[in-house]
Structures are given as C-alpha cells and as structure tokens.
Amino acid sequence: MFAASFTAIFQRDLKRMLAYSSIAQIGYMLLGIALLSETGLMATIIHLFNHGITKAALFMGVGAYVLRSGSSFYVQIQGLGKTMPWTSAAVIIGGLSLIGVPGTAGFLSKWLLVQAALEQGYWPISILIVASSLLAVIYVWRLVETLYLSTPSSEKRLFKRHHFQCCCHFG
Questions:
Q1: For residue 73, what are the contacts with CB-CB under 8 A and spacing of at least 6?
Q2: What is the pTM of this model?
Q3: Between 90 and 151, the higher pLDDT residue
Q4: 169 falls within a domain
C-alpha cells in the first residue's frame, strides 16, 4: 500500500499514476483477506467492486484527456479542468473515492477495512490504513493542481495540430 502510493506520487504520466494507485488498492484488498475475518473479507469484496468502478471511470476520463491533448502526461493536460469541466469533475470525484473521502464508494470499503482491523485487535494496522489513504491525497491533489491551477503548456498545442486527421476521402 505504501510503496505503490509513494511511487504514484512521483509519476509524470496520469495513466502510470493510476496504475500504481491500483497496486496500492490491491494492497488494501490483500490486507482485508489477511485479517482472516468475515468483515475483512466483506471489505475486500466491496473494495474490489468499488475500485473497479472507480478506476474504470478514471481511465475513461484519461482517455478523454488523451483525445483532447494527445497525451496523458501532466505537462500536456495542464489547464484541462477549465476546458473540460464535466470530465474533470468526474475524474476528481473518482480521485476522492481513491482517497476514501466520506460520501464516495471508496469510503465504505476502507471504513470496513479499518473496522475489520479493529475487530481483530490490530489498531496499529487501522492507523496504517488511514495513513496510507492520506498518501492518496498527495497524488489526487497533484491532479487537481494540474487540471485547475496550472496554465496550459505550449507543448500541448503541438498535439492539437495533428489531432483527428482523417486519411479517408469520400467522393
């Protein structure tokens, strides 16, 4: 959970960040199984489902960014929160779910995972679950910064010029 979250923080490509985030989320699932309890298994199954839905939505948002800018690198998607507000809002909500913010799907499964650890008497593990979730705040905030607080780079214009050129001629 920690190693993959730390690695996700330092990625320059949004797709790679999401991939490392998935590895961290799988760590939560393995932890739920390792707790050897009904609550831990329930937390794992719910987290598996929630993560699948959340990550699918996030990758669809990345696909939309790639169609618009030609790349998924942070430098290429700077400022797209202003030009793609609905997509960016959906991506940020998905990011909040990765963190486990209350009101998102990720909150329920992480809450159950903490509860499973506490039921087994592993309160230090529950603290580690919360601490690991807080690492997600860093890489989700970096995405917010890139989408909303950064000005578009001049490199992005290079991709737009070659965007959607069609080689088919109808006559």
A1: 12, 13, 14
A2: 0.85
A3: 90
A4: no
